[in-house]
Specification:
This protein is of the alpha/beta class. It folds into 2 domains: about 5-140 and about 305-325, Aspartate/ornithine carbamoyltransferase (Rossmann fold, 3-Layer(aba) Sandwich); about 140-300, Aspartate/ornithine carbamoyltransferase (Rossmann fold). Helices cover about 40% and strands about 15% of the residues. The protein has 12 helices and 12 strands. It has helices at about 10-30, 30-40, 55-70, 90-100, 115-125, 140-160, 180-190, 205-215, 225-230, 270-275, 300-320, 325-335; strands at about 5, 45-50, 70-75, 105-110, 130-135, 170, 195-200, 220-225, 235, 250, 255, 280. The strands form 3 sheets. Strands 1-5-4-2-3 form a 5-stranded parallel beta sheet, with helices on both faces. The protein has a 5-stranded parallel beta sheet with strand order 8-7-6-9-12. A two-stranded antiparallel sheet has the order 10-11. Strand 7 (about 195-200), helix 8 and strand 8 (about 220-225) form a beta-alpha-beta unit. Helix 1 crosses helix 11 (about 300-320), helix 6 packs across helix 7 and helix 6 (about 140-160) crosses helix 11 (about 300-320). The protein is globular, with a radius of gyration of 20 Å. Mean pLDDT is about 95; it is low at about 250-255. The structure holds D-malate.
Length: about 325
């Protein structure tokens, strides 16, 4: 696999194999010896992170993941210090990244950028690995992989129900939340059955995403009431309100988007109504929808998701660059 934009091309078996490889990576690289060995796996490979949108976890975990594998890693924001400030087209900019990098990890407000990049590279004769690290309000496949891995690990270690046996509640900003849309695609592949879509008017999941999910056989139930699902769901997935997509609401003082008040909050009271083995998940960053008081509840697993993001991205890079690994390094690495 040289390209990752969306998860619908994966099979359930590929998910299973991938989660097992994440587990191996996580165990192997948790030891100093494993870390030293992994350093030589891809030390001749060059990776560029091209992010034109802000990020903390995705950026840092990809940077660290590349470093874990010994890659030469560069960060480029395409901003004022680049030739785009002189009017260079985005196409010429990413062509330049392709000239120097083996792997390009992209976060962009343009959901089509990585698809365009792939087309252009094909035409240009570049055989580069491209990873979608957040595209507009539509794609965030590596987030979905780490979300699903976290649940897979829980069922694997704690022998709890499998992902496909769980009932999901996707809550809040379903209109702009790209993590939600990628997770929904992942749930289609693993064969999840029931998903509640909990959104207030104006924040509902767009029709095309709903149709895609319904066509795959998912049972979608829409509601605007958190109360309706609080005792029924096994997994509550709640991203922040994606205020940056509201073009009209800018804060004149800061020049920043005005942060929207969440439509739903997972309060200690709401936790008390959830099943004892439910999970509360978030792609983070969290704002008011997840008050700090709930962090210590064992059902709040978003900080585990954050940690798993590193192992998932190492396993993904390793998987996508497997053919570049020098032969004798494959057995040493062990995944
Ligand atoms: C994203 O980049 O979409 C984040 O992981 C979630 C968010 O920004 O709310």
């Amino acid at each position: 696999m040289f390209f990752l934009n969306s998860l619908e091309a994966w099979t359930k078996q590929e998910f299973e194999d991938f989660f097992r490889s994440v587990w191996v990576v996580k165990n192997n690289l948790s030891t100093p010896q494993g870390r030293v060995l992994s350093q030589s796996a891809l030390s001749h490979v060059h990776a560029t992170l091209f992010f034109d949108q802000p990020s903390t976890r995705t950026k840092m975990s990809f940077m660290h993941a590349c470093e874990f594998l010994g890659m030469h890693t560069y960060y480029f924001d395409g901003g004022a210090s680049s030739s785009s400030a002189k009017g260079e087209s985005i196409q010429d900019t990413y062509r330049t990244l392709g000239a120097y990098s083996d792997v390009i990890i992209v976060r962009s407000s343009d959901k089509n950028l990585v698809l365009d990049m792939r087309q252009d590279f094909k035409a240009w004769g570049y055989n580069k690995r491209i990873i979608q690290a957040g595209g507009g309000s539509e794609f965030h496949p590596t987030q979905a992989l780490l979300d699903l891995y976290t649940l897979w690990e829980k069922s694997f270690l704690e022998k709890s129900s499998k992902i496909e046996e769980k009932t999901f509640a996707l809550i809040g900003d379903l209109k702009f939340g790209r993590a939600i849309k990628s997770l929904l695609r992942g749930l289609q592949v693993v064969g999840a059955k029931k998903v509640y879509l909990v959104a207030k008017k104006g924040s509902e999941l767009p029709a095309e995403n709903k149709i895609e999910a319904l066509n795959s056989g998912l049972d979608l139930v829409e509601t605007s009431s958190f109360e309706d699902v609080i005792e029924k769901a096994d997994v509550f997935y709640i991203p922040r309100m994606q205020s940056e997509y509201e073009s009209v609401s800018s804060d004149a003082r800061q020049g920043q988007p005005k942060i929207k008040t969440p439509d739903f909050v997972v309060s200690p009271e709401s936790l008390s109504q959830m099943k004892p083995d439910a999970y509360v998940m978030s792609p983070l960053p969290r704002l008011q929808e997840l008050p700090e008081e709930i962090d210590t509840d064992q059902r709040a697993i978003y900080w585990e998701q954050e940690k798993n993001g590193l192992w998932v991205r190492i396993a993904l890079l390793h998987h996508m660059c497997k053919d570049l690994i020098l032969k004798n390094k494959i057995e040493e690495f062990g995944a």
